[in-house]
């Protein structure tokens, strides 16, 4: 009788951590250039095909086989939820999708959704990150924590679970999605989304993102608004003759930063990207300001979208009142409503929110995993595409912390001890699911 059959959990002896081969695989993945063209602007090699092949070779030694390996088709970029920057990049850059494939690995035969666990890992990264190295206890390099390190930790956990549970790959199926298009603002529209639409999902779906080994059942979505001023330039000798986009956008940036956050009840407001020009002796009549708004539910997203319109309208009116009598800014004040325009670069994506009793019983009670603290905000990841998919439960679960491990910053790292712990936790998660499935079969 195995540990799984006796207790539903792996023993510490059964749940091994990373092997020497795992460490070599991670260093190889870190060395491959998998930064997507949305991050680099194009023109640089993208080695996602190579990275996915390397991972598939390692997974093949555990019994996984490739059931899908291809980029998304052009139809993936035609929906209303496709960010404008993604659609434009695909239009401007030949081969944009071709260099960003997705892979699906399967263990065992195709089984019903109710008997399947799916793991999602993205191998694309943001740019930068510093040199790749391993100190003996810590991996450095872009993707070490987000999310190549978790991807390798997942394999180590699967190895331990397979040693304990003969049901895995026979009575319980396992899928691994290896996706592109998670970073760079792509929001998974040509990675995770098409794979979900093709049915590569399970009863339990685990997105391997850093959560400090805590089970998170929420994922925010985000929308990006662009505030533009399209006015008339002026010269420094007659600054009142033109429309001063710098002063107008600067005023509106402060107004939005003060007035909009109370509407983001389950998300965040980020006011950023203010640009008019770089010279000191010119009045710039054009410019733009970007506002990124995250939200935890579709209802909040709709309300936040409407609130931005109202808050902006109020801000423009206050600017007009504040500067109406100013010789330097009276023209800008008078025409502020006419020259100020709002458009959306990204909006109306789904958000994941689940208070799932089945997940709590399976992962917290039976597997003994820790919950994400209720008072902490969620973050945005590709798990949003599982929102509302029938017969599924979805969690975000991974090692490390996005901030503490310097994801998206120079010096990104992952500690070997954290990846080893993640492997053990993955073993507990899988064996708990398998035990639950066996109990249902009885």
Question: What does it look like?
Answer:
This is M20/M25/M40 family metallo-hydrolase. It comes from Streptomyces niveus. It holds the Pfam family Peptidase_M20. InterPro entries: Peptidase_M20 (IPR002933), Peptidase_M20A (IPR050072). Helix 2 runs antiparallel to helix 4 (48-60), helix 2 packs antiparallel against helix 6 (148-164) and helix 8 packs across helix 9. With 442 residues, this protein is of the alpha+beta class. The protein contains twelve helices and 19 strands. Strands 1-2-6-3-7-18 form a six-stranded mixed sheet, covered by helices on one side. Helices cover 35% and strands 20% of the residues. The chain is elongated, with a radius of gyration of 24 Å.
